[in-house]
Amino acid sequence: MATETQSQPSHATLLVRYIEVWQVDETGQQLTLIANRCIDNPDATPVAEKTVVGPGEGIAGRAWNQKSATVLQEEPSELIASLSQQAGTDLAGVVAIPTFDRTEIRGVVVLGLGTGHGAIEAWSRDERDELSLSSSWYGGLPGFEFISRYVRFPKGAGIPGEVWKTRRPQLAREPGRNPRFVRSFENDPAHLTTAVGIPVGSDSGFASSVLLLLPSSAVPLANDFELWATRSGRNEDESITPILETVQTAAGLFDKSSNDWRIRIAEQVARTAAPQLITDTKLLPDPARVCLAVPTYHDGELIAVWTLIF
Amino acid sequence: MPLTTHSIQPPQPIALTRSLNSMAPSKPTSPVTIYAVGLTTDAARALLEATSLAGFGFRQYPTLNGLLEGAAPSATGCVVLGSSNDTAQDELTIGQLTHHFTSIPVVALLDSTSAQHAVALMRLGVFNVIVTPVSHEELVSELTDAVNHSLQSQTSVDAFRDASLRMQNATRKELDVLELIMSGMRNKEIAAKLGITTRAVEDRRFRLMKKVEADSVAELVSVAVRAKYFDQGFAAAGNRSRPVLPSSSRQCVKGIEVWVPDSDDNGLSLEQSCYRDAYAFRDATHGMKFHKGEGLPGRVWQQRAPAFLKDLITTEFVRSDVADADGVTTAVGFPVFDRTEVVAVVLLLLDSRQQMRAAFEHWEYEKKQKGLRLSAGTYINCEKLRRISEFLVLPIGEGMAGTTADRSRPYITSQLNEDANVVRGVALAAENLVSGIGIPLTDSGKPADDVFTLFNSQSSPVFSLMQLWKPTPGNIDLVLSAEYADGVATLSSQLSEASDTDDKGIAGQAWQTRRPVVVGNGSVAESVVRCHTRTQLSLAVALPTIVSGEVTAVTILAN
User: Fold this and answer.
1) Cβ of residue A140 closer than 8 Å to a chain B Cβ
2) How does pLDDT run across B157-175, given as a tens digit for each residue?
3) Are B542 and B514 in contact (CB under 8 A)?
4) Mind telling me how many Å the CA of B107 is from chain A's nearest CA?
5) Is the pLDDT of residue A192 over 80?
6) Which residues in A12-39 are b (16+ Cβ under 10 Å) and which e?
7) Contact at CB, B423 and A182, closer than 8 angstroms
8) Which chain A residues are within 8 Å of B429, Cβ to Cβ?
9) Which chain A residues have a beta carbon less than 8 Å from that of B369?
10) What is the C-alpha end-to-end distance of chain B, expressed in Å?
11) Is the model's pLDDT at B19 over the cut of 60?
12) Closest residue in chain A to residue B426, using alpha carbons only
């Protein structure tokens, strides 16, 4: 595997400070913590307060129980304080994203957020069958935050509505100038560079749309975000294997044309149908980096993998 | 004072034509008209002969008001005024004429016995005084001089308007740099003076040149000079108080019409109107009637809700041919209710080609949404605002529309990005919309179910003056409770000085009649009581708000 770079990645100004990856165990009754990591201090081994939770327990259990993405900012303070302690750093917010395979939740990704500019929003279907803001985290975007409370997206409208309609993750560049992003205003002080929409829901019903608004390089969410569109193919032994169709990147950290490592990660994710925190130095182009890989399924097929690279 | 016929020789076909041709101005690129008012029949006839020989147009008006109603402020030519020999009267007349026209000089016609009055007239600002008897040739010569002056002035006005529009988005910091450039300083000296880096100086200069579309610093300076930044001073220009543009540059409002149902409720007839430059449109409208659902007025009447036609040429606008000819490109109509009845339909006729930005909206309460949603609207050069507005739900009491609905009274504001009642402050500011008004429409009690909102830009406001009048307790008096002129709020202490009890103003008239009142051109100055008098006004409408049968407010919109 070619090494893209041997330099130590800078994590000092990333918004995501802490990651947990939970998977539903074989009984389907519990979530088990399979990996966690402090981005600020990758050599540290964070000690989780609990490694097994039931529905509704903790942040991961809450997202599992609600079958919907959850974003917390400041409240409930005890949950954030507890996670901050595990992370070994002060967290200003948390986002928990359940991942589905057909009708079942297979895992939950928990991201602990530091302070900085940006926005993470969870848009959920309401009783009027539109998407309205159910929970959110904002850093330094008071005008944007204010107006977002009043927005409703029907299916197909705006990035959240597009995600709902297509059931696929969406990536939009330059939200301030992008007509797909209806809340775009060129005088936005945070200079948002990328907007990412991630579907959260089972085949039987779309639950919510998570919107990640990635700020300027000053305080990015991660060192890079990648979105891989996939489809199912068959190996020689007739086993199903994911095939990469397109690769989109926010920061272009890795070469888009060298996809061996991406396919390997997609295969690993497909085997479990659950999110993975890839720390295996052999799997990534840069052994100093880690990759959170999260699958998106539709009609039982893996249609996309979205990744945060640190 | 008649011109004595022996002084004006009947035109000799060949000789006079030759001499007239040598004196006639080169053919103007815009229509030139001689406007006559206050002349005797003989004098008017003689003037008509002179102007037609010179190749000018000619219009005679029996009264000053007729002239001010019928002639566009941006016209070129001259006014020939028969002097009354009463200095006070002449002063009033000449003042109204110079106030109305941006570049038309006034020529006074005076008989020889009133020669001394000529001095007073010159002091009042007339361009020239013609003392009769005068030869035909001299008359044409004087008119030609006046016309040439008009043409030159119009060119200056156009240049000023063009330059002002180009400079309109300059920031305070950019103007600071420009001012120092124009004083002869170099970049390093400017940087030291302003306490910034040389790079920052270059960045600001570059940004300003890009906004102004200037290819060089010399061109940038030239635009600033033409926009009179040098004369007026940068401080005034940079304090977000834009230079007062001649009224012709704010001619986005071409007319206001008030249509009312007939007594048998069979159709809408035009009750009041005023127009600016839209003569063909005005003439075509005379005598028209609309049934329910017919035309834009009929549609508003039938729907009991606002209706918008952004591009009249491509829509079903009944008067689209004359609209095209007169530059009326957009029409907005909204109803006025009294209890459950639509008692009037107000139509705003606009020219949206004038680099204007504006938004007109109808918000409707939806029970299921528990808030107001955008039902319809038209957005002129503010597409992003339209896009976000389509997805908003404004609860009662929030946002412009929600606040208006909650109060069941008009709500005016000019601090769109700072007003907590304005949800879309960021979006409005991004579109350079600086002031707005919400008007409740339905008389369904509190809160209102329907709200009409309008947003203005600074440089080309639809209405440069917005006022809110309220009756005092017991309905004894009508007092001014809010006023915004050119996007700036009048101080509360000044508002208390204004009242309109004696129905002299249109606010009082609308209050008493419970119906909209429209005034135009020469009548606006005396019909709109106001604190802020800097803005020149040509059109105004007073709109009563009726809640549960009572007039709770009167809104004045003027341009």
Assistant:
1) no
2) 666 666 766 786 788 888 8
3) no
4) 52
5) no
6) eebbbbbbbbbbbeeeeebbebbbbbbb
7) no
8) 185, 187
9) 128, 152
10) 37
11) no
12) A143
Sign (positive or negative) of CA dihedral B314, B315, B316, B322: negative
**B295, pLDDT greater than 50:** yes
Q: Each residue of B380-427: pLDDT tens digit?
A: 988 889 999 999 999 999 999 999 999 999 999 987 877 888 999 888
Residue written as tokens 């800097």?
B534
Q: Which residue of B has its CA nearest to A144?
A: B426
Instruction: Assign B487 to helix, strand or coil.
Output: coil
Contact B101, B73 (CB under 8 A): yes
Distance from CA of A143 to the nearest CA of B (A): 6
For A31, the 3-state DSSP assignment is strand
Show residues of chain B in contact with A189, CB under 8 Å: none
CA–CA dist B515, B312 (Å, integer): 27
Euclidean distance between CA atoms A85 and A48, whole angstroms: 9
Yes or no, beta carbons of B387 and A185 under 8 Å apart: no
Q: Are B385 and B373 in contact (CB under 8 A)?
A: no
Two tokens, residue A149 = 């409370």
Q: Are B465 and B319 in contact (CB under 8 A)?
A: no
**Residues B421-447 pLDDT 10s:** 899 988 898 888 989 999 999 877 678
Instruction: Specify whether the CB–CB gap between A137 and A120 falls below 8 A.
Output: yes
A90–chain B nearest CA distance, Å: 31
Question: Is residue A306 within 8 Å of residue A269, measured between CB atoms?
Answer: no
At B160, list the tokens.
């000023």
Task: Find the CB nearest B391 among A128, A146, A157.
Answer: A157
Bridge partners of B411, per DSSP, are: B438
User: Could you tell me which residues are beta bridge partners of residue A115?
Assistant: none
Residue numbers in B near A184 (CB within 8 A): 384
Cα A157 from chain centroid (whole Å):
21
Number of H helices, E strands in chain A: 5, 17
CB contact under 8 A, A147 and B423: yes
Q: Assess whether pLDDT exceeds 80 at residue A185.
A: no
Establish how many alpha carbons lie within 13 A of residue A244's alpha carbon, considering only the half-sphere containing its beta carbon: 20
Residue of A183, A154, A135, A19 lying closest to A88 (CA atoms): A19
Q: What is the pTM of this model?
A: 0.68
Which stretches within B168-228 are classed as H helix? 172-182, 187-194, 198-212, 217-226
Q: Please report where in the chains the tokens 């907590």 appear, as a residue.
A: B420
C-alpha angle A32/A36/A40, rounded to 5°? Answer: 165
Nearest to B419 by CA among B410, B429, B409: B429
Question: For chain B, what is the radius of gyration of the CA atoms?
Answer: 26
Asked if residue B479 lies in contact with residue B469, where contact means CB atoms within 8 angstroms, the answer is yes
- The verdict on A150 touching B (C-beta cutoff 8 Å) is yes
Dihedral pair phi/psi, residue B39, rounded to 5°: -100, 150
Rounded (10°) angle between helices B87-100 and B115-124: 40
Residue B242 — very low, low, confident or very high, per pLDDT cuts 50/70/90? very low
Burial of A157 (0-12, 13-18, 19+ CB in 10 A): buried
Shortest distance between the Cα of A46 and any Cα of chain B, in A, equals: 42
Tell me the pLDDT tens digit for each residue of A3-52.
333 344 455 578 899 999 999 998 889 999 999 998 877 777 777 778 89
Look at residue B354 in the predicted model and tell me its pLDDT: 62
Mean per-residue pLDDT, B307-334: 85
**Measured torsion, CA atoms of residues A45, A47, A52, A53, in degrees rounded to the nearest 10:** -120
Cβ pair A182:B387 closer than 8 A: yes
List pLDDT tens digits, range B86-128. Answer: 766 777 788 778 767 877 889 988 876 666 677 777 767 788 8
User: What tokens were used for B79?
Assistant: 């006014």
Rounded CA gap, A294 and B246, in Å? 62
Q: For residue A132, give how far its alpha carbon lies from the nearest alpha carbon of chain B (Å).
A: 10
